[in-house]
């Protein structure tokens, strides 16, 4: 299933594995260009709005079942500003990964500026 999903990605999508060791921009994420799909350790993703809204526990449970069976089919959106990752959506998928004890989550990473970040936090 996961392989089938990957085959549907356009050729210019690149897959990188990001190491937890660096605290700067990871080697796989280019300094310019479009979004890239990378696996990022959960503890490297800041979620500033996490406490503002509770997840639906039923959705999380269903996602846990599905992710453990067929894997994450749609990556979560992540913003990268100065080497720091921020997640504002994909909350149920993120929690499902946490509860499953998965160390990394597949992310669609876009680079942004501090202004982009301020816009998300407004
Ligand atoms: P979230 O807060 O993570 O966006 P939602 O319940 O609103 O949670 O949406 C779930 C999303 O997870 C959908 O976009 C769905 O396509 C995606 N998804 C990714 N992988 C799976 C999977 N294995 N099973 C079910 N949905 C999945």
Descriptive notes:
By secondary structure, this protein is of the alpha/beta class. The protein has one domain (4-121): Conserved hypothetical protein from pyrococcus furiosus pfu- 392566-001, ParB domain. Helices cover 31% and strands 24% of the residues. It has helices spanning 2-7, 57-70, 91-100, 114-121, and strands at 15-17, 36-41, 45-46, 76-81, 84-87, 104-111. It has a 6-stranded mixed β-sheet. Strand 4 and strand 5 form a beta hairpin. Helix 2 crosses helix 3 (91-100). The longest helix has 14 residues, at 57-70. It is globular.
Would you kindly provide a brief summary of this structure?
With 122 residues, the chain is of the alpha/beta class. It is 31% helix and 24% strand.
Layout of strands and helices, then pairs:
Blueprint: H1 2-7, E1 15-17, E2 36-41, E3 45-46, H2 57-70, E4 76-81, E5 84-87, H3 91-100, E6 104-111, H4 114-121
Parallel strand pairs: 1-2, 3-5, 4-6
Antiparallel strand pairs: 2-6, 4-5
This protein binds adenosine-5'-diphosphate.
């Amino acid at each position: 299933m996961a392989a089938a999903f990957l085959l549907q990605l356009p050729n210019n999508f690149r897959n990188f594995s990001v190491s937890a060791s660096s605290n700067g921009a990871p080697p796989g994420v280019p300094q310019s260009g479009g979004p890239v799909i990378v696996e990022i350790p959960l503890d490297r993703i800041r979620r500033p709005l996490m406490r503002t809204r509770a997840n639906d526990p039923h959705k999380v449970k269903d996602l846990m079942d599905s992710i453990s069976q067929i894997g994450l089919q749609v990556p979560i959106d992540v913003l990268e500003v100065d080497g720091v990752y921020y997640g504002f959506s994909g909350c149920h998928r993120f929690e499902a990964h946490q509860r499953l004890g998965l160390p990394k989550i597949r992310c669609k990473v876009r680079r942004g500026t501090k202004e982009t970040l301020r816009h998300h936090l407004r």
